[in-house]
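Same chain as my last thread, 319 residues:
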Amino acid sequence: MAGHLAAGTESKTVSCDAAGARNNRPMPPSDLEIPAVDGLALSARCFAPAGVVRGAVLINPATGVRKGYYQPFGEFLAERGWQVVTFDNRGIGGSRPRKLRGYEARMQDWAERDSEGVLRWMSKQFAGLPLGLVGHSFGGQSLGLLPSATRLRGALLVATQSGYWGHWSGLQRIRVLFLWYVLIPVLTSVLGYLPAKRLGIGEDQPAGVARQWAYWGRHRDYILRDGHPEWRAGYDSLELPILAISLADDPYAPNRAATAILSLYRNAQVEHRHLDPREHDLGTIGHFGFFRPLFRETLWAEAEEWLRSRLEERPPPGL
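reply #2:
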């Protein structure tokens, strides 16, 4: 249950490092609370590797997706030597209050307060380790809002996109327009929250989160709709390597939308791979399928190899 940590409290005392690993096997996941920037206690989960630690990776969640969804991928990375942290944004999963109606939260809070708070905590907890991020959907859209993102040595973005309705076409465009202009405004006004579960779009969301999401989605500039020079500067400050993976069978993140969000990272070293699952004999992937264990030996292995190549420290040639 969401709450505020006492002053001076960093998190619940848990083992969240490789020192506790035994028999050369990763430890079982540890549940803990990590403070957001404003002190709100966020429900989190840590995966500690065995043996040599390559670095630390934050899995930054998609809109309305609970931390448990990423557990198989987190365990996979831990098996290969990575410290991994997942968490629930405020209003979601273990960070949800008893009632969502009347609960105050905005989508920007998920970035500026929640993701930023977890990144700050990881920077202290895993000081000296290279730090990376895996961002799913909104978890990859918002890095420019995180001052600590400049500490990242690399970011893997999965199914990350701009939510502007104009990037869709045909029937899907009509669905997105209806979501932004009708469904979210009406349902949040009547119910005081977005019943996303019943709509099949993730966990229920605080009204303020859903309304800001729709507000951004109605404008071509999406997250930067209101200007926010500090956010623009935040994106421009990121010069890290980024690998973005979008899927041809993803109705929530068409190629145009994926390309549009990547244009915000104009100083980063961006590589965009738009994959058609049919061409690679991968079956159906869509917006959420990347994190299914089915892809351990294919997509996951390639993603971990990319993270390793970008995050691991290597001595200069000749040493």
